[in-house]
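TA notes. Do not distribute before section.
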Amino acid sequence: MAGTSRILIIATSADEYQTVGYRTGLWLGELTHFYDVAEEAGYLMDLASPQGGQIPLDPESLAHEFLKTGGTIERYKDKAFMDRLDASLKLADVDASKYDAIYMTGGHGVMFDFPDSAELQKLVADFWQAGKVVASVCHGAAGLLNVKLADGSYLLAGKTVTGFSWNEEVKFDRADAVPYNLEEELQARGATYSKAWLAMGDHVVVDGRLITGQNPTSTHSVAKAVIEQLREG
């Protein structure tokens, strides 16, 4: 299969929790850290979201301590880069054949609009069944929850994965705000869940073409694993 040297990045369209007043959206570093690695490797990237258009940013991801990590502040200062977040593609308009891999970013917003997006489910299944790389980081694994393959089985069934742990939700005071326990839901779909010994530790699971990272600190490692898998493929 001829490669396209393009990666599709998916972000949330949701900007708030459903039961509390917290604002949410994309965790910016989960985009920028991945983007930097993939761009350096020669890949072009398109950004899409369930609704298309403007992608909201989780305000906590803009705290100075997070912006300082991994060059995120340089991307935040880059008007051309940030303007791309105002004009994301709509998932329904995306053609999977144009890309080598799909990568789902996190931020709590994805917990609300990723699992029930029929367009996202179809895209992920199309990527997987075409032999392409499927990746996520942190809460982005919510986009894997309801993906079913042509035979009716869950993509997650029998896979080993990771994603934001319940311990991390508790640690960051979101246990009473999130709509479900991502760690438990991944396992309910037949996946084996793996996590770092310490909360917010860099942890990536590579199960063939399925690559998942536990939390924001894992993004750089997820990107490196995706590029390595693409080059080997």
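Switch to the second chain here.
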Amino acid sequence: MKDLAAECDPEDPVALFEVGGAHDSTGFTQTAVGYYERAIEAGLSGVRRRRVSIQMASSLRELGEPERALEILAEERGRGSNEYDDALAMCEALTLAKLGRDREGLSVALIALAPHLPRYQRSTVNYARGLVGLDPA
């Protein structure tokens, strides 16, 4: 991947993202985070922007920085919605669990799951909201 990325501008956001992902997939998590940060700074956008946020948050969670991971996920959620919303919720749920906030994580996961159920969507969301003391939707 580094050889392919070397064919691009050194600050090409897509190349930085892909090199970061290759490092992440091969166990070089800390190095991956650096590439992910550079990709964002270089202007990574679109679906890859959401993916880099999810991947970086996951890496930070495993590197012992779950609070920072939650901040990244919240910022990304504020950017709008796309086909990676459920992956974002999965990462948030795991990060909340890492912080010992299991009920919040379960709530996030159930709310993400609800639209995929053949029935009981509204009940699932209401129970999930109840887990964290929120009124039904």
